[in-house]
Amino acid sequence: MNIDNLILIIPAFGIVALAFTWWKTKQINAQSVGTPRMAKIAASIQEGAMAFLKAEYKILFIFVIAVAVLLGWSGSQNPNSHEYVAVSFIVGALCSALAGYLGMVVATKANVRTTNAARESLGKALEVAFSGGSVMGRGVVGLGILGLGGLFAYFGNTFNAFEGGDSLGMTLSVLTGFSFGASSIALFARVGGGIYTKAADVGADLVGKVEAGIPEDHPLNPATIADNVGDNVGDVAGMGADLFESYVGSIIGTMILGAAMVAGSANFQDDLNGLSPVFLPLVLGAIGIVTSILGTFLVKVKDGGDPHSALNRGEFASSIAMIASSYLAINFFLPQSWSYDGVVFTSDGVFYAIIIGLVAGLAIGKITEHYTGTGTKPVKSIVEQSITGSATNIIGGLGIGMISTTFPILILAGAVVGAYELAGLYGIAIAAVGMLSNTGIQLAVDAYGPISDNAGGIAEMSELPSEVRQRTDKLDAVGNTTAAIGKGFAIGSAALTALALFSAFKETAGIDIIDVSTPIVMAGLFIGAMLPFLFSALAMGAVGRAAMAMIQEVRRQFKEIPALKKALVILDKNDGKPSDQWTEEERAQFEEAIDSAEYGKCVEISTQSAIKEMVAPGLVAILTPVAIGFGGGPVMLGGLLAGVTASGVLMALFQSNAGGAWDNAKKMVEEGYEMGGVKYGKGSDVHKATVVGDTVGDPLKDTSGPSLNILLKLMSVVALVLAPFIKV
Description:
Elements: H1 3-29, H2 36-76, H3 84-118, H4 122-158, H5 167-212, H6 224-263, H7 276-296, H8 307-333, E1 337-340, E2 343-346, H9 347-372, H10 377-385, H11 390-403, H12 406-436, H13 439-461, H14 466-509, H15 519-560, H16 562-573, H17 584-596, H18 599-613, H19 615-670, E3 673-675, E4 678-680, H20 685-722
Antiparallel strand pairs: 1-2, 3-4
């Protein structure tokens, strides 16, 4: 295959993925939205989600333009860079923002249609929810491959990089702007989305559940619409932007290291002018699109079946297809063997490195499931400790979060060493590509969760029959597990992506060795290790302030709106009685109360808080590597990246897993949990203790923990963009 054909074929796979999203979107739109009340609730959720995106993108537009101007000017002044880096940055930001927008729009349409499908069967509901998630998944990989492949083709032709010579370095340097743009959007989407969703969630939980004694999804809870909006903002758009950043970052890092490997090899020969290691990650990404689409068609379940098994079937089938396809692609593009720095590497070594990355991602996900899944021994231990109150519940959750870091870190360490032994630094980077090769279906599984959660909330607020809520709850329970697995996968992929970008920075900056015994490197290490704690503190403080404003608003509405006060009395009077057994007067008063709840006020508070509070963490992430790079030089910046990567991965695992375990401990009690011959359920002291634990864990697992993924990747990307300016 010649280069001219290849640079056209790769972006075409991105178009295929986007065509698939269009087809799935059309299928979802064709489904019925159900009753008028269901349609009204869904419209409110969609309106709130779009209001947040609109407010967030207004701020980000100003940021993107300002940074693009700065990058363009600085690139034009440096012989190692070019003003086209600004174009790359803008395209990366646009692709990331567009992926989030598409995912959000479809998710907020799929939620009510999932609810309506659940009135028919579990299998139909799973189909609609997963189809909604698959739009996010394919949108991310499609825009990633289309954007990267298209820019690489354009810049490569512009700088004559495909004809050999030194211009390849300039092309790849300019291409790093794409990853920077994606990372910038990801940062604000994750942090802002996390603050939004947790402010609403805390308000709905503490005031609704604990104080008013009603479910968080009850139509009388003023924060319930904001809470449902938050599921989409944080877990659809936020997760999508996170994995988009990892996806493109791992590909770009691998391309840079591939170019360095060929440049340092005396006997590397292929049919692409020595560019096969550079093209390979793009090719693998393109193949991953096809295998993910194939896996999607295997996600089906019958009524009474297990949705989790159906999701696993699709994911594992896609992984197997990816492994087989990768072997063929590697042996087609790469030579059988070559030497680099006196070490002989083989195409088989590269293939095994990909398998290592893929297996490591799946293994971290399964370990995460063990520590956070409903019914597992660690989560049961938290429930059992809750019998003595919220203090022991929190102690138990902290312990589970800490110990849950052990095996994922050992797996990552083994993956890094194994991949390096097989294919050097290129092996580590290609392992990250392997781990992320199934991003399309992995993200579909992740996004399925919040859609199912929303579907359950809509069923509750629409007062649908109990069997409908049972079906949505079954989907939601699986969604909680897949969300936890997704967070573990995101953290693992962030670690390997950060290492790939770090290695690429080291090559680009011309650093031979980073000696940790030197004071300047040690200083960088300490500062880097501190940053995840500072970043988490800023994120947690932001959630606390936003949640306080939400709590006060919900309390105000329960206190000052007469219809809501009357409705709470009616609920207490008719405790356990179906609404069709109420008096007509009670029913009329209840309907009046639903219409009087000021949902929009809560949505507005969450939106304003998120936009305001996301600025400080964002500035820390972007400005710190700039200050260290220009102030302490590339070697100190290398120390900073090492410190933030090691500390950030540990903190992210601890926070995400502790929060996930607390969440599912609460859900186990809500479903009914028997201890010592006594069954504890909603409203019990054990339940109240688990609600407190879940409230503590929510900002850890949905805000500060996931945001750390962005921190360590973004800092590596900023360093990579800076490398031509601070080169040794």
